[in-house]
Task: structure prediction
Amino acid sequence: MMESRSAHAPSRSSQQMGESGSIMSKRKVKDAHLPIGECITQVQEIMRERLCHQQLPDKPEGIEAQHKHLLELLKRTAVHGESNSVLIVGPRGAGKTMLLKCVLRELLEEKEAQKNLLQVHLNGLLQTDDRIALKEITRQLHLENVVGDKVFGSFAENLAFLLEALKKGDRSSSRPVLFILDEFDLFAHHKNQTLLYNLFDVSQSAQAPIAVVGITCRLDVLELLEKRVKSRFSHRQIHLLSSLTFTKYLERVQTQLSLPDDFPDTKFAEDWNDSIKTLCEDKSVEDVLQRHFNSSKDFRSMQMLLMLCLSRVTVAKPAIKPADLQEASRLCFADAKANMLHGLSILELCLIIAMKHLNDVYEGEPFNLQMVHNEFKKFLQRKSNSMYNFEQPVIMKAFEHLQQLELIRPVDGSAAKTQREYQLMRLMLDHSQIMEALQKYPQCPTEVKQWGMSAFG
Result:
């Protein structure tokens, strides 16, 4: 029996060989070359995650002082129950929201802040008046049931009631609330600036611990505030002004497009990263990126450019070439209005040219349909063939279509009192946009092109 059992039982040396074999096979899997299609799919997934999902950096670069200052301020509210107000000011894409998110992430690592701090996020583009804003505050604080059908005399009473409702069981201390007002300057356009007045008033008095953080790209935002609102604001401002150099911008492009060390196919990752390095050293690529850097230093526009490049990577062309970047740049800088002109009918294009000539003759003065029609008639009279003989209703329809496309707009609001033919309009296109459209218009008749190119009608 013993002999038969030992005959069937695997020896220890064979087990060790099996284990070493599995280790070898794992190593082989790691060093294995994946099919090119799978590599491209993985590249696109990694890049999409990186460029579209805006992951927060571990530590914000170049704004350490601002990060420390804001964290200290919000900690005083969240942990010590002290009220504060502050504005984060900087151009679009400078990293204002990213800074705030990094600070909140760090702040909420503290147990007390995590347990007590409530957040209310408002946006001036969405909460266009105080009534909508108050409704949103109530919803975010989950106090709809508490408010119920109560009727309040004023905004201040309603807000005071909401903050009172947040008091803890012993009613001695209220939970700290962080109010984040994105597009802060738009709240200054609300009637009497009631929301701002009441929030700053609470933050200045000892009613309840709140912190008001405004995010805006307007440097003159304090000039928009009423005297009574300004007097209640702490005048703390954190400025984020871009100090990015072109060299750092180039490095950022290379980092954004490079693959990580843990990419499954090591050989493919090495080749890809080498090709990205070569790409960034190319003179034509440098010129394209310099143009983007000069027009906008924010990372969002750069990421949009890189996404357009990546969409051109395929199994047949598994690398980004300088031509891809140039094409992506052309799409980014494409003029939307000039592109719209390519889809107009010949009649609509002729009306646009007539308007351009009227603008040249009368130095930008407004025009009406009758004037445009007369200018168009002059063009038709100069041509022997009357292939463009349109009835008045057809011309009016084309004129109205141009207005719907917002290529022309009425000068004032007195449109209802004026006959449509005599309603004054302005052309919303400049000379260069019309010239570009004429050059690229598919099968544009020669006489129309010549009329458009001529100095005056």
